[in-house]
Structure formats: structure tokens, C-alpha cells
Design a protein that fits this description.
Shape: globular
CATH class: Alpha Beta
Largest sheet: 7 strands, parallel
Radius of gyration: 18 Å
Helix content: 40-55%
CATH architecture: 3-Layer(aba) Sandwich
CATH topology: Rossmann fold
Strand content: 5-15%
């Protein structure tokens, strides 16, 4: 049997890079990594896995480019078994009435965090239907059900993502559609929140993120990446339509032993 093929967006760093590495080195998969830019870390991963990693530079807000990238994955490997939708932005931070956050910023946010999901799904669904079952893993957030002041755009886009995942589960009963919250992961996003989030958040909310870093409780990309990689290959249909945290009971079989 040929190796499974997984397409992942936002693959150049953080969670995306950790998932890509785990798929290649621990799950024996072929990965098509889509990234707006190539990082030294992604290039190094490619150098070590050139036969099983295809890197495609692609801005997920470019509908034509994203569609072509996913079509290339199917053309190159004749299958797509998993789709991991990880590309995201936190900007713009700020209260809803923030005069500096115009509608253009909100539209850009939703182009990245939501409308790119639709483009990717439309391109990948025909191949995913053949995988029996194909898997779509939406990298969501506790913000989808949260209400942190200053995060209006992010809260809204992740809530929309979860709604899309639930609807996809009903429309495509032969495909696993799962929204997963990775928790507070030690990535650039956390660094940005600590360094520049204070003016846009309450002191209490901001301190939560500072404390998580100082107390060493941030989730390691290495750990959550393994779970996401495993789910993209083996998530059961019983999880379809659900929203789960990576460390909850539903994911226990996908964590490292």
C-alpha cells in the first residue's frame, strides 16, 4: 500500500512545522507543505526528506494559487488522505471600537482564517472522498468559544471555523471533519501576545499568558504536533463534527506512549 498523503497549510514554523516533521519522521507519510514563506527550518526538513516532502510556496488568501497547490498535490501523488488547515493570523488585535482597526484589517483576517478554508476544502474534497475516510483537521482555538476582550476578530473567525467543521461533517458523512484546540503552544503567537498584547487586553487576561510562559506550562509544539499528525491519518468517523482539545480523552490514543 502506498504511503498516505497529507496537505498542510501554514507549515513553515510553530505547530505547522512540528506536524510536518512528525508526519514525515514518526508517521511514515508523504507531506505537501504549503507556506507563504520558506524558513530555514522548513528547508532543513526538506533536505532530510526530499522524497516524501513537497514544499509549495503559497499565500492561502490567493484563491487561484491555493487551488493550484492542492491540485498539484493530487497530481503528484494521486491521492490526498488528510488536510490540515493550520494557517492563521491573530491580527488585528484591539477592541471592536478601536479606530485603528478598520474594516480592511478584519477582511484580511477572515481571508486568512476563514475564506482560505473554503478554498482549500473545495479543492481537496474530491480527493478526500476517495480516501475512505479522508480527514480534515481544523486547527482551532479555545477562542472559538471564548470572549477575551481585544480578540474580537480571532474569536469570531475561530467560531466560524468550528461552525464550518460541524457543517462539513454533516454534508460529507464519509469524511472526518474535526476542529481541534491545541491549547497555549510555545510559538511566535504566544511571544507576540506577551510582548505587544497588553495594550489591547485586560491586565488579568494578559497576565495569564505571561504566567504560562514563566511557569513553563506552555504546550510544546513537539507534543501537540504528534497528536495532530496522528489524527490527520487515523481520526475515526466518531469524532467527526466535534471540537476537542488536544489533551482531552478523545485524543488519548493519538498521544505518545
Amino acid at each position: 500500500m502506498s504511503k498516505p498523503v497529507v496537505v498542510i497549510t501554514g507549515a513553515s514554523k510553530g505547530i505547522g512545522l512540528a506536524v510536518t516533521r512528525s508526519l514525515l519522521e514518526e508517521h511514515n507519510a508523504i507531506v505537501v507543505a504549503l507556506s507563504r514563506t520558506r524558513t530555514p527550518e522548513l528547508d532543513a526538513l526538506f533536505a532530510a526528506n526530499s522524497h516524501t516532502l513537497l514544499v509549495v510556496e503559497c499565500d492561502v488568501t490567493d484563491e487561484e494559487a491555493l487551488t493550484q497547490a492542492i491540485s498539484l498535490a493530487e497530481k503528484e501523488y494521486h491521492r490526498i488522505d488528510g488536510l490540515i488547515l493550520n494557517a492563521a493570523t491573530l491580527d488585528p488585535l484591539g477592541r471592536i471600537d478601536n479606530a485603528d482597526n478598520g474594516l480592511d484589517g478584519w477582511k484580511r483576517h477572515f481571508d486568512v482564517n476563514f475564506f482560505s478554508l473554503l478554498t482549500a476544502l473545495k479543492a481537496a474534497l474530491p480527493a478526500l472522498r476517495k480516501s475512505n475516510p479522508g480527514k480534515v483537521i481544523f486547527i482551532s482555538s479555545g477562542a472559538a468559544t471564548g470572549h477575551i476582550p481585544g480578540w474580537a476578530a480571532y474569536n469570531a473567525s475561530k467560531a466560524a471555523m468550528n461552525s464550518l467543521s460541524r457543517t462539513l461533517a454533516k454534508e460529507e458523512p464519509g469524511i472526518v471533519s474535526l476542529a481541534l484546540a491545541p491549547g497555549k503552544v510555545d510559538t511566535d503567537m504566544q511571544g507576540k501576545l506577551r510582548e505587544s498584547g497588553a495594550p489591547h487586553m485586560t491586565d488579568k487576561d494578559h497576565q495569564i499568558f505571561v504566567d504560562a510562559y514563566e511557569q513553563g506550562t506552555l504546550v510544546k509544539p513537539y507534543d501537540v504536533g504528534y497528536v495532530i499528525a496522528g489524527l490527520s491519518l487515523g481520526a475515526p468517523l466518531s469524532l467527526s463534527g466535534q471540537f476537542v482539545r488536544w489533551d482531552e480523552e478523545e485524543c488519548k490514543d493519538f498521544r505518545r506512549r
